[in-house]
Amino acid sequence: MKKGRVIAVGTILACSIGLGTLSVEAGNENSGYTFKIKKNQGNESRSTKYRQTTNERNTWKVRMYKSGEGTNTYTTYWLEKSDGTNVSPAVDVKAGNKDSKSGRNYYIKGNWGANAANVRLTAENNNVSSSTFSVSGYWDEETGRMLPGQYKTYYTTEYNK
Predict the structure, then answer these.
(1) What's the CA gap between 40 and 108, in Å, rounded?
(2) What DSSP element (H or E) covers 3?
(3) Alpha-carbon distance 105 to 155, whole Å?
(4) Other Cβ atoms within 10 Å of 89 Cβ, number
(5) Does the predicted model carry a pTM greater than 0.70?
(6) Alpha carbons 23 and 81: distance in angstroms, whole number
(7) Integer distance in angstroms from the first to the last C-alpha of the chain?
(8) What digits encode the pLDDT tens for the residues 64-113?
(9) Which of 17, 57, 78, 125 fits a disulfide with 90 by CB distance 3.0 to 4.6 angstroms?
(10) CA 133, CA 68: separation in Å to the nearest integer?
């Protein structure tokens, strides 16, 4: 009798852990983007995607592998709603060397306004300049990767990590 209960409890626990893991895996997609970064920090954005998570620590991702400013330059990225409301911290993302596998993945938390909402990737020059340039990369509105630590805003990984 005890052995049956232990097996039942073990089975329930294993299923619970498995289901918990599935609910976190939102998928780690690479949706391509290209922006023309405007002069004087004018904003540029793309069409919206639905971010279904209700957990702010469920990160979104951006990677910039090419910038017309050059390798190792920075552009500022964040998420916003279609009405222009910012719904994530802004992060300066470092450009790769133009190879589509260069650059780093930046995993960034959303704010409460990004939960269960349509969001769009937005970018601007990280400094005031009268020049315009193009940037290219990949992004994902919801990765299923949880931000480690309550007070951290983002973390980075190599291309395929």
Answers:
(1) 25
(2) helix 2-24
(3) 8
(4) 14
(5) yes
(6) 24
(7) 46
(8) 999 999 999 999 999 999 899 999 999 999 999 999 999 999 999 999 99
(9) 78
(10) 5
